[in-house]
Design goal:
The structure holds three protein chains of three kinds.
Chain A lengths: L9 E12 L2 E12 L3 E5 L6 H8 L9 E9 L13 H7 E4 L10 H11 L5 H14 L3 H4 L12 H13 L5 E5 L7 H14 L4 E5 L3 H7 L2 E6 L2 E7 H6 L4 H8 L4
Parallel strand pairs in A: 3-7, 3-8, 5-6, 6-7
Antiparallel strand pairs in A: 1-2, 1-4, 8-9
Helix pairs in contact in A: 3-4, 3-6, 4-6, 6-7
Chain B lengths: L14 H9 L14 H32 L8 H6 L3 E2 L6 E2 L2 H32 L2 H15 L3 H19 L8 H25 L3 H9 L4 H12 L1 H17 L2 H6 L17 H10 L7 H35 L1
Antiparallel strand pairs in B: 1-2
Helix pairs in contact in B: 2-13, 4-7, 4-10, 5-7, 6-7, 7-10, 8-9, 10-13, 12-13
Chain C lengths: L5 H43 L5 H5 L12 H32 L4 H14 L3 H15 L6 H25 L3 H9 L4 H29 L3 H5 L24 H4 L5 H9 L4 H35 L3
Classes of the chains: A alpha/beta, B mainly alpha, C mainly alpha.
């Protein structure tokens, strides 16, 4: 467990999480903390469970049959376990947003894409909505590129722009945590650099958890890094320490490129 | 280790942000318990009933047909029904042998399949293995239009165009014949066979064809020796379903086949199918519940069982080729 | 390169010839099929086109071929199709949504899917028989417009269900997950995303299904459509409150394909001409619906590229 995080407020805490796909145990006794207003990276080889862990945070696994959570994820430690059956998954998703690997804007206008989250939360005031759409697009560094064509189809944008649009969509609702599932792996290097820059800017305002298969990316943009392997958290530390002096042999091997 | 982060001052961030945050202050409240969402459950129930209707209709069909047909067999022996060679239920001396109707159905279906199966498969192979994309895109809509022609119009076609034409070749052809009805029925079913067979052929993966071409085979050899066998269960399924379709066809035979049930397999004679008989009776006046009324349900039940057999067979075969594919 | 032995060369020539023969057989078959369609339309045109006139469209059937018209037939078709659409579209689309979005993989779902696959292959005349026993007599709905509409609705139900399912299935998982991640409930995902994006596909299926219903004859003859009707169903509007009347649903009826059937079954040439004219109008109806569906389908495919 992380000891150097004592002085930093936590946004979420994972406690002894086990996750089952049917009868297959995919996450084994995972425990870690997510400090507030910082970027926490999950890295590891393919199939290690990092995306699975990420999707537990917003209960995405509930959409498919035969999935089971055991253990806890506490949002704003001190409050309830968001994995509990008593808590509405919709409620969780209203507070925790997600950015997916492949940009998936809705086949609607740019404006409608960003305002969708607000619409389903019942926001009806049009000027308020326009204001918040502009703010979200600005935060995603997309406003200047699209401000004159908010009514155009979102699918007309380039890949990098679409991903920034999806980021704006997830930011528009002031989420408490933004989950990023390999957000740049489908983008070209220039678009990737732009998104990484955005993540670093947004870090001060919103807590983020990012899954990435690129450890250099984790080293570049995250404050904390966790290595996962075969469903377990092997090591978790602040990024500087993690990369400079990894404690576990497995971590050292992974960083050296011996596997994964 | 845990800090009480719930009390972080929101207002310390930018005025814009704090304005937004104030609106969303409910976000800092504890997570809400699971809502009942009664309305959504209600909608789901409604949707379920819509889907379940299909089960109700199926039950309805079997129940009505059999319940109206069974009393018939209290008056007529089953053996007589299945082996009798005369069908004359509405005559003063009624005869209840179903064989003539089955003959009519058989011969018209057979004639139809003689046309539909070869032509349908050949066109399907052409569209799947030979034709350019542009040709396919223009031909398929036209075939779709052909399959959209109502069967009563095909009946018109059979009686008023095809029969006179055939009579030029076969002068002894009567004005109503199983031949004329069967051939037109065949043409009517060609788009159906083509469509199903083509699906089966296109499902065969490209690499099988490439392997064959790489060995120097012609398109024909590849199509016949590699693709066709690979798609065999799918194509057989399409044949079986086409047969079922022909057996259930009514209007073409009702118009062009004549309404005379005969115990013969000669296509140059008029014929009445099981389906055309039902139409004939329905056109007249039959008191509800009379023996004559029951005969149409008996005919219908027979038809249902026969087509059910072919449909089940066809679907088993289709499932087989779909599974192979996956 | 060594030259191929003569036997092999002959073999190759033979195979090439077979290939060419097949290609030409296929082309001829295709052209033949299309020619049949052409011959059919041409004959209808030649025999019937000049019978079509305003008189023809507005007259009732008659013993006299030249006085006979199809007003009762096309009005009947219209009335019946309204009922058919009203019943089959909501039922079919809802069933499709349930099966594609809500149904779990259990026994009941398999039973429903088997039932639908089965119904799709049941001959249309059997629907007529069921309707005769159940709707006409047991439920006492009579040999009426409502029975006809109900029967045809059940007949085309599988088509609409399948079209709805395919349209929904073509929407990729990524959009569903994106909507869910925004916090949308299942119903909201369906209302805001799945239905709007699949409307084109569903509509195409509905149009094709309805065009099939317009041409159906056998089941309607079975439930007792009259082949000689000299009156129209009641008007849906009335002069007293509530100003709409449902009388027309209970009225006897005839439809266009039955009129064709009736006239073509007569020996006189004049009636054949009437049949051709009526058939021409029927074909124009079904063809225009199908062409519209085909165009719509192509437009939908171009518009949303996943």
């Amino acid at each position: 467990m992380v000891t150097s995080q004592n002085s930093v407020p936590l946004k979420a805490e994972v406690k002894n999480l086990n996750f089952y796909y049917g009868s297959h145990l995919a996450l084994k006794n995972v425990s870690l903390v997510v400090p507030e207003n910082q970027v926490t990276a999950l890295i590891g080889p393919s199939g290690c469970g990092k995306s699975t862990l990420l999707r537990c945070f917003n209960r995405m696994h509930d959409l498919y049959p035969n999935n089971r959570y055991e253990g806890e994820i506490l949002l704003n430690p001190g409050s309830e376990n968001l994995l509990s059956k008593d808590i509405d998954a919709i409620e969780v998703r209203l507070r925790i947003s997600m950015l997916f690997q492949k940009p998936n804007p809705f086949p609607k206008s740019i404006f409608d894409n960003v305002s969708y989250g607000l619409k389903i939360r019942g926001l009806k005031n049009r000027s308020e909505m326009a204001h918040r759409v502009e703010k979200a697009l600005t935060e995603a560094a997309l406003w200047n590129e699209v401000k004159d064509r908010l009514d155009e189809q979102a699918t007309q944008l380039s890949g990098g722009q679409q991903q920034r649009l999806c980021l704006a969509r997830s930011l528009a609702t002031d989420p408490e945590i933004v989950l990023l599932d390999e957000p740049t792996s489908a983008l070209d290097p220039i678009a990737t650099a732009k998104v990484e820059e955005l993540i670093q800017e947004l870090q001060k305002k919103v807590t983020m958890i990012i899954v990435t298969h690129n450890m250099q990316q984790a080293a570049r943009i995250s404050n904390n890094t966790a290595l996962m392997f075969l469903g377990e958290v092997i090591e978790f530390n602040d990024t500087k320490t993690f990369f400079a002096s990894p404690e576990k042999k497995l971590t050292q091997d992974y960083l050296a490129g011996s596997f994964g | 280790m845990k800090q009480n982060s719930n009390t972080v001052d929101l207002e310390s961030s930018s005025p814009l942000l704090s304005n937004q945050r104030a609106l969303n202050s409910h976000l800092r409240m504890p997570l809400r318990k699971k809502r009942l969402r009664i309305f959504e459950k209600f909608i789901e129930l409604g949707l379920f009933f819509a889907a379940f209707c299909s089960v109700l209709v199926t039950i309805g069909i079997f129940w009505i047909l059999f319940s109206e047909a069974i009393p018939f067999f209290q008056h007529v022996a089953i053996w007589d029904f299945f082996t009798g060679t005369e069908w004359a239920p509405l005559f003063s001396e009624p005869k209840y042998g179903i064989l003539p109707l089955l003959c009519g159905t058989f011969i018209s279906t057979f004639m139809a399949m003689v046309i539909a199966l070869p032509m349908g498969s050949v066109i399907a192979i052409y569209l799947s293995e030979y034709a350019h994309e542009k040709i396919r895109e223009s031909v398929k809509p036209i075939l779709e239009l052909l399959s959209a022609v109502p069967s009563v119009v095909f009946g018109y076609f059979a009686l008023l165009l095809v029969t006179p034409l055939l009579q030029k070749i076969f002068p002894n052809l009567p004005s109503f014949s199983a031949l004329s009805a069967g051939l037109v029925m065949g043409i009517m079913i060609v788009p159906y066979v083509t469509s199903l067979s083509e699906d089966a052929l296109r499902a065969v993966p490209m690499h099988l064809r490439e392997a064959s071409f790489a060995m120097g085979a012609t398109r024909f050899q590849t199509a016949i020796k590699v693709v066709f066998p690979a798609a065999f269960s799918g194509i057989t399924a399409s044949f079986v379903l086409a047969i079922s379709r022909a057996i259930g066809e009514t209007m073409v035979v009702a118009i062009a086949g004549g309404m005379q049930p005969k115990f013969t397999l000669d296509p140059f004679e008029p014929a009445q199918t099981v389906t055309a008989y039902i139409v004939q009776v329905s056109l007249g006046d039959l008191p509800h519940g009379s023996l004559g009324y029951q005969t149409i349900f008996v005919a219908g039940s027979t038809l249902l069982l026969i087509t059910l057999f072919f449909n089940i067979l066809g679907h088993r075969l289709r499932k087989k080729y779909k599974e192979q594919d996956a | 390169m060594t030259s191929l032995p003569t036997l092999l060369r002959l073999r190759i020539k033979k195979e090439r010839r077979k290939n060419k023969i097949f290609l030409w057989t296929a082309r001829v078959s295709l052209v033949f099929t299309l020619l049949v369609l052409l011959a059919l339309v041409t004959d209808l045109f030649i025999r019937g086109a000049d019978r079509i006139s305003l008189d023809f469209l507005l007259s009732f059937p008659s013993r006299f071929a030249d006085k006979a018209g199809i007003v009762s037939a096309w009005v009947g078709t219209l009335c019946v199709m309204i009922v058919t659409a009203f019943v089959s579209v909501p039922l079919g689309v809802c069933a499709g949504i349930y099966l594609e979005e809500y149904a779990k993989k259990n026994k009941i779902t398999s039973i429903i899917e088997v039932a639908i696959a089965n119904l799709a292959g049941v001959p249309s005349i059997i629907y007529g028989l069921m309707a005769l026993g159940l709707f006409v007599y047991k439920f006492e709905l009579g040999q009426s417009v409502q029975t006809a509409g109900l029967t045809l609705a059940l007949l085309i139900l599988p088509i609409i269900i399948v079209a709805t399912r395919e349209a929904l299935r073509s929407i990729p998982l990524s959009v569903r997950e994106a909507a869910a991640a925004c916090g949308a409930t299942k119903l909201q995902v369906i209302r805001h995303h799945l239905l709007p994006y699949s409307t084109g596909g569903i509509l195409t299926g509905i149009i094709i299904a309805l065009s099939r219903a317009i041409g159906e004859t056998a089941p309607l003859v079975t439930i007792g459509a009259l082949t000689y009707i000299a009156f129209l169903p009641h008007s849906p509007l009335s002069t007293e409150a509530p100003f709409v009347s449902a009388e027309w649903l209970k009225d006897p009826f005839t439809v266009l394909p039955i009129q064709v059937f009736n006239w073509v079954s007569r020996p006189q040439e004049e009636f054949h001409r009437n049949a051709a004219a009526a058939a021409l109008i029927l074909m124009v109806l079904t063809f225009s619906m199908n062409i519209f569906a085909i165009v719509l389908r192509a437009r939908v495919r171009r518009k949303i590229k996943w």
